[in-house]
Automatic annotation (TrEMBL):
The keyword Transcription is assigned to this record: yes
Keyword field contains Transcription regulation: yes
Matching PROSITE patterns: HTH_LYSR
Transmembrane segments: none
GO MF entries: DNA binding; DNA-binding transcription factor activity
Family: Belongs to the LysR transcriptional regulatory family.
Protein name: LysR family transcriptional regulator
Domain HTH lysR-type stretches: 1-58
Pfam families named in the record: HTH_1, LysR_substrate
InterPro entries cross-referenced by the UniProt entry: LysR_HTH_N, LysR_subst-bd, WH-like_DNA-bd_sf, WH_DNA-bd_sf
GO cellular component, one term: protein-DNA complex
Amino acid sequence: MELRHLRSFLTVARERNFTRAAALLHIAQPPLSLRIRELEEDIGVRLFERSTRHVDLTPAGVAFQQRVTELLMLLDRAVEDARRAHDGLTGTLRIGYTGRASHAVLPQLIGELRLKLPDVRLDLVGPGSSGPLAAELLRGNVDVALCFLPVQGESVRTRSLSEVEFVVALPATHRLASRAKVPIKVLREEPFVAYPADQGLRLREAVDDECERAGFLPRVVKEASTSQVLLCLVAAGTGVAIIPREIQDLDAIEGVVCREIEPQPRRLAHGIAWREDNPNPALRRLLELDAVSVGIRPAGGRLPPGTD
C-alpha cells in the first residue's frame, strides 16, 4: 500500500466516477482501476460497489474513507511542519545573556522574535557573566550569547551592538573630585573597589587592562558583583572605581561623583556571538532580525543589578 493508492481512493470516493477521478489525477482510467484493485487486495475487503452506471462506497469503504482522510490531513500537516522547521519558523532558540543585555538588547530582540517568529520557542539562559556564557556557547549549550566581546573560539562569529565608555567614580570628598578630568596614572596609589576577578567578568578584565596600560595594577580592597553595591562602597569612601559611563545614570547615590578619564580608555564592545557551524535554522532567522542586523545603540539609562 502506497500513498498514491490512498490519494487515488479518496479521489474516486469523492467523485463516485473513475473517469472523472482519473482526469483529476492526470492518469488514464485503467491504471486508476488497477490501483484500486491493488488497494482492496492489500486490505482484503471491497471498498467500492461498481456497476455500469454507479460507483458507490461499501460500508468498509465509508469507514476507510474517514480514517484515510484524517491520515492524509495529518501527513499534510507533518509536511508543513517539516518545511517550517527547515525554514527556521519553528523550533527552539537558546539565548544566553548578561545583565547588561537584559537592559536594552534582550527586550528589543524578544519583541522582534515574538512579532516575526511567533512559533519559535525561546529558552533564556541568564543573566550570567560573559566568560561563562562564552563557554556555554562553545559547548553548544546556547545558540547565541548576548555578551561582551570578543569571544574567541573555532567557528565563532560576533557582531557588536553597542559600546561601553568608562569613567572614574570618586567619593564626593575625594581630592580629585574637583577636577573635570582625571589622569588614570594618578590613580596608581588609590584603593579600588571593583567587580570580582574570579567570575569571568569582562568589565573587571577591561578595568585591569586599562590600569596595566597606565603602568600599574589596581589595588582592589573590596569587590562587589553589582553596580549599586559598587557605588555605595565608593560613597562610603572605601575606594575609587572605574565603571561604565551609563552607570552614573542610576538612581542618584549621594556622595559619588563621576569624572572623565585621561586618556580615554578603550571602549568595550557588547553584542551577539554565535557559532557558524550551528545547524539550528532558527538561528539564521534571528541573525536576520533588525535588532541584530542593524544593531542596537542604547543611550544609557537604568541598568539592572548585574551589568556584565
